[in-house]
Amino acid sequence: MTNPTSDDARDDFILQERLSGKSARAISKQLRCTVGEVDAALDRVLPKIDNAARQRHVSLDLNRLDGLLETFYKRAIENVDAQAGLLCVKIMERKAAMLGLDSPQQLDIVQVQAQKEPSQHEKIAKVINDFWDRMTPAEKALRDRLSKMDAQKGAGTAGPSRAEPQRQRLRPCAMTGDQRPSRATVQFTMFRATC
Fold first, then answer.
1. Which of 83, 87, 182, 188 is buried most deeply by CB count within 10 Å?
2. DSSP, res 178
3. Has residue 107 been placed in a domain?
4. Domain for residue 105, yes or no?
């Protein structure tokens, strides 16, 4: 069995060497042991960090910060010292961060739904309907009169009439896939509507 006094002295030596900046590998070479033994010695010497230890450390740090704040606050007020005032602000920021006062108190989860993009047919129908809605009543009357004249002229011919007797509002296409009119048909319809 090993001597506990020498083990304690060795553990303290390893701790002091690590604190001075030496790597665990360099210490293990110096003491002719493994890196695992160096780490085990550090685990024995260093305090265990659990919730109780964290709370103690936070409490101690908060007390230290309060002492500094008291000293530098007096100096900032009595001597009108800007540097002391700045240090007071930094101390208060650190305390707020340690206590979690800067974090949001409540998170609201908002679910955003993407708006459905209108189809190409719906976009074209909207443009055409907007065009017709912008016409003045006089322009609409003239358009209806011209349509009737073209319809009367074309009634004697064998082909279908170019004119439309009355303008109807376009509705979004309810067709699917291969039932939809081709692009050329949609463009031709637009051309006819703007004549």
1. 87
2. G
3. no
4. no
Count of domains in the chain?
3
Burial code (b: 16+ CB inside 10 Å, e: under 16) for 150-168 equals eeeeeeeeeeeeebeeeee
Domain that includes residue 78, residue range: 51-99
CA dist 1 to 4, 33, 39, Å? Answer: 9, 17, 21
Cα separations in angstroms, 37 against 19, 27, 32, 33, 41: 17, 10, 10, 6, 6
The pTM of the whole model exceeds 0.85: no
Would you say 123 and 101 are in contact if contact means Cβ atoms under 8 Å apart?
no
Residues 56 and 28 in one domain: no
Q: Are 147 and 164 in contact (CB under 8 A)?
A: yes
Compute φ and ψ for 165, nearest 5 degrees. Answer: -60, -40
Phi, psi of 32 (to 5 degrees): 55, 55
Residue 163 tokens, joined: 């004119």
Inside any domain, residue 33 = yes
Q: Residues 64-111: pLDDT tens digits?
A: 999 999 999 999 999 999 999 999 999 999 999 888 887 766 666 676
Q: Which tokens hold the place of 18?
A: 């690590």
What six digits make up the tokens of 47?
């305090």
